[in-house]
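User: Teach me something about this protein's shape.
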Amino acid sequence: MVRLAEGLSEDGSLSPEVEARALACLERFAGLLRDLPPGHVRVLGTNTLRKLRDSSGFLARAERCLNHVVEIISGIEEARLIYAGVANSLSDEGRQRLVVDIGGGSTECIIGRGREPLELESLYMGCVSITRRFFADGRLGRKRVRKALLAAASEVEGIRARYQELGWERAIGTSGSIRAIARVTGTDRGQDGIIRKAALEQLVKRLIEVGEVEKLKFEGLSAARRPVFAGGVVVLMAIFDELGIAEMEVSDGALREGALYDLLGRKQHEDVREATVGAMARRYAVDIAQAERVEASLMALYRQVAEDWGLAQGDDERLLRWAARLHEIGLDIAHAQYHRHGAYVLTHADMPGFSRQEQRVLAVLVRAQRRKFPQAELRDFHPDDQSLIHRMAVLLRLAVLFNRGRRARGIPAPAARAGKNSLELRFPPGWLAEHALLATDLAREAEYLAPLPFRLHCE
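Assistant: First, the predicted structure itself:
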């Protein structure tokens, strides 16, 4: 067990000891992943990486170690994937379910029916964070446990009314803390696989009686789990109390299985990100016909330069298509500076299926679609990624410019030839002379791109 949250300080840095432990773990995974292509692997970062202020470059070292990108996902996306893992590991009898997953720094609570989550929430508490806050010195006195229970209950209180209103017929727990509690309370030793409230209450009393973390040598509790076990018990007890749970089943499916099902969906052209983009376009009243015109122009350019510009791998094409479909979502907020409004929404919205990095790329592309190029917003990206995003943004800017007139018949797709930091567009003979407005727009666009530095030449 790495327990990454254990090494996270108040200022968002990661302790050298925990970082070394994490990288050693990743090195072992790297050997198993060596022969797998990138599209067959997903590496997900959750609560600790969401909070990490990565001035030390831990993420870069982790990615070099694995030779795969680490996707940092939001708490809501984590909850969605957890539910997918649980739902696909159980028979679907049509009853509404409450699913609970206690992690190191966050706890996900989901209500769903069948394969569909109905309500998703990520609470700011977990077995490691509660342990660090209340039991850091290893002592488990009655007053400390009571304070920890009250703190955990206050986190659950915010979702109690909504969750009880929706209701559920089955409560299901998953992942390490809950499975450890199940082992200690004996529910997986010839019994019925259910954690009952009375057994959980008795476990809390036993923690207080033992009094010290190091003395928690219960049958079924591993030495690796022992340091954070009390924090997990506190979180689960608070959830039982606040949500009125009498008993909880234990499932083997969780985030890992959910990520695998999600990856399988992408391979079978059932990418949840497509549905997310469509839902956002509807929510923000996007002019679908205009978005399709921009996407068509964008793809006509993309196909000509993708190989030369290194855009033919990964999700580059999909990200460009999604940026085209969503480039005008900011208009639903205000016409002035709509590209900025759209970028803000894409940065901060909960977007099922998307990692935080993917949302940042979409946001930068939408922000960069017009006027001065926002170079400052690219500084947090790796230099290689900056170059790719520059090129993607140039293509989107031109596609938007070609369709400024919002006409059903757009301009003819020009022939495009890409250089390292340049793009040459060739139009039919005499076409630019006959379309002076477009020629003027393209000349202005060349001026906007010059500071990158980038040369746009049209003839």
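Now, about its shape. The two ends are 61 Å apart (CA to CA). The chain has three domains: 4-72, 75-260, 271-413. If you'd like, I can walk through any region in more detail.
User: That's plenty for now, thanks!
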